[in-house]
Design goal:
Layout lengths: L2 H4 L8 H27 L18 H15 L14 H17 L6 H20 L3
Length: 134
């Protein structure tokens, strides 16, 4: 056997690389076209999920929004998962205390918009808490 026959032949199909690159470019152009339309149609609510209906992207604002919604539900301001309006002030206070703890632990580390969302959520929850009768 000659030296050339001993080494296995390596066949590289570079055509698939071109195909993958074309697909990536098509995806990028589709997402670029959809973003302006989606931005104008998208709700401004921080808890709104992506267009696919999945959960929203994890962020500090979404966390605050989730805890705010939970506390408002516990204060009887929103229906619970069962559709009933119920009040549970001790658990609502715990949720408000959790947000206060987040505020103190993240002091100096939040962006301005995150700080404002947290501050406004706590203010609204405190005002609602004192207005709700046991």
């Amino acid at each position: 056997m000659s030296e050339e026959e001993k080494e296995p032949k390596l066949v590289i199909d570079s055509d698939w690389k071109e195909q993958v690159q074309k697909e990536k470019e098509q995806e990028a152009s589709k997402s670029d076209e959809q973003q302006p339309a989606a931005a104008s149609d998208a709700p401004t609510d921080a808890s709104a999920g992506p267009a696919g209906g999945g959960p929203p992207e994890a962020s500090f604002t979404v966390l605050v929004s989730m805890l705010f919604t939970q506390a408002m539900t516990l204060l009887g301001q929103m229906p619970g998962p069962d559709g009933k309006m119920e009040t549970n002030k001790p658990l609502a206070k715990h949720t408000i205390d959790t947000l206060e703890m987040l505020q103190s632990k993240t002091e100096g580390n939040l962006e301005d918009d995150e700080k404002q969302v947290l501050s406004e959520a706590l203010h609204a929850l405190r005002m609602t808490f004192v207005g709700v009768k046991s």
